[in-house]
């Protein structure tokens, strides 16, 4: 299968994950909201609180694939959420050009890839067990050299300011909106966009956090629609805490 076909397959799988819980979700949404994030304008990502907090210590070596798997959330780590591992087929490593090029970092992060590329990655999908919450959250841990992780965050910040709409692997995305920077990790970036995939339009909210050399990337979609979708704060906090626990255990 060529890269483009693989990317298209992943796009459909990711949108299907959000739509799959529609039958089980009775009423409206109501996904847990990240208190640190509120809708903002394009200028909200121009500053970066926390940027450089790790500058005064030696960079940590990138985590291994085994360490990432140990650090990633599992069922039971966050109450009331079911966690499944993302297949490699749904996390293609290849990058397909986006139009316009200014949107490339955002297009890549939809598949949890980046330039510079991660040395290893692992992904998870979380769905609330409550039938009242139609939010599906995807996350990935990406192991980088710290300078590369910093560049990925900087490029996403720039792209969320400059990009408004783009085409990628035959799908169209619009309404790219930079959100206020959440105070997680050493630095973070957050933004929102709409994706039209197989005649279905979904709003997606992204939060990407740098913890030294590791990126913890999250995005949320609501199967029942609606613009007010947020990455649940409890998921972000639990993932960062587990990542830090593995890092301390490993001595990195």
TrEMBL record:
Region of interest (Disordered), ranges: 28-61
Protein name: Lipoprotein
Keywords for this protein: Lipoprotein, Signal
Biological source species: Streptomyces poonensis
First and last residue of the signal peptide: 1-20
């Amino acid at each position: 299968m060529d890269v483009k076909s693989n990317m298209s397959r992943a796009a459909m799988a990711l949108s299907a994950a959000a739509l799959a819980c529609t039958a089980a979700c009775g009423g409206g949404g109501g996904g847990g909201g990240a208190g640190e994030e509120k809708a903002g304008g394009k200028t909200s990502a121009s500053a970066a609180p926390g940027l450089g907090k790790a500058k005064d210590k030696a960079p940590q070596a990138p985590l291994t694939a085994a360490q990432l798997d140990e650090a990633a959330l599992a069922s039971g780590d966050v109450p009331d959420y079911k966690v499944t591992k993302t297949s490699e087929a749904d996390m293609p490593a290849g990058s397909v050009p986006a139009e316009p090029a200014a949107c490339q970092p955002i297009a890549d992060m939809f598949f949890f890839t980046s330039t510079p590329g991660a040395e290893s990655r692992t992904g998870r999908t979380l769905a609330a067990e409550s039938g009242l919450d139609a939010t599906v959250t995807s996350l990935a841990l990406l192991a980088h050299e710290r300078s590369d992780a910093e560049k990925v965050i900087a490029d996403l910040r720039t792209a969320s300011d400059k990009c408004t709409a783009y085409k990628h692997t035959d799908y169209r995305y619009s309404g790219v909106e930079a959100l206020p920077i959440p105070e997680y990790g050493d630095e973070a970036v957050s933004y929102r966009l709409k994706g039209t995939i197989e005649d279905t339009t979904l709003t997606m909210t992204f939060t990407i956090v740098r913890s030294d050399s590791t990126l913890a990337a999250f995005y949320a979609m609501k199967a029942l629609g609606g613009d007010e979708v947020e990455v649940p704060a409890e998921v972000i906090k639990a993932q960062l805490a587990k990542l830090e626990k593995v890092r301390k255990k490993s001595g990195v």
